Every structure is written in C-alpha cells, then in structure tokens.
Amino acid sequence: MADYGVTDRCTGGTASADSEAGAQYDHLAFDDNASTYWQGLEWIKYDFGVGISWAISKITIQNFDASNGFNGFTVHGSNNDSDYDTINTDSCAASGNVQTFLFGTDNTTKYRYVYIQQTSIYGALAVMEIEMFELLVSPKLGVGVGSPMMI
User: Taking the alpha carbons of 143, 87, 97, 35 in that order, is the dihedral positive or negative?
Assistant: First the structure.
C-alpha cells in the first residue's frame, strides 16, 4: 500500500492564479483556513520555492460549496515553470466537503511547480482549501521517495 504522508507540502511557497475575484486571493486556497477562499477563472499554481520539489501523488480539494468550485480538473508539474507534465486528471463531486484524490499511478517525479487547471466547474471557480501530499513509499518501487530534491 502506498504511503502519502500527512504533511501538506503547500507551506512556505508562493501561490499564483490566472485571476482573483475581489479579496479572494490565490494564497487563500493554501492557508489551511477553511473560512477563507480563492476565486478565479481557470487555474491556480503553487511554487514550492527555489531548490525545493516534491513527488506529489495526492491532493485534497475543498470547493466553496456544492454549487461553486472545481468539477473536472488536471494536475500538472514542472521544474522550470514553462514545460509542464500532466500528473493526473480527475473530477470533484458537487460538495463543499474535503475531497481526496490519489493519482492513478504513483508519481515519483519531483516538481517545483504544481498547477491545477479546471476543465469544468460548478458555478464559479471558488476553492476553500487545497493541500498536496508527496508519495513516501510506493508498493511498485518498494522504496521511499519522500525527501526534497535540490534543483
């Protein structure tokens, strides 16, 4: 069984997005505070920081409510903020509850940048919280991969 760890890797980095509505800033989706939220149009990205990358294989998303948030989405990773690999494609249920997404294949590639692109939304794209977790132990590889790669 894969071990994804319990440490949200979205700390100490920088959020960015295609847009922000009013005071619903991009960093609010990563602030570990379910009473704040980000609202945008297409995508949100997290930069873990210079010299830090993680093998993200699990994310949690808490949409604003059942009528506003991600429906379909893709998760992409990059180490240069230009060339992105698709890591996962999934969809959220119409809910304001926290939803967990385990990637279909264990991602062992470490990325500095991870962005989430909506492919469809419920109402407006409004998200209370996003957390990202790395793969610590893969049953396919039988080894741990959970230390940051210095790039």
Answer: positive
Per-residue HEC secondary structure of 33-76 comes to: CCCCCEEECCEEEEECCCCCCECEEEEEEEECECCEEECEEEEE
CATH of the domain at 110: 2.60.120.260
pTM of the model as a whole: 0.88
**Domain coverage including residue 48:** 14-134
Distance between CA atoms of residues 57 and 101, nearest Å: 8
Residue 26 maps to a domain: yes
For 27-68, how does the pLDDT look when each residue is reduced to its tens digit (9 = 90+)? 999 999 989 999 999 999 999 999 999 999 999 999 999 999
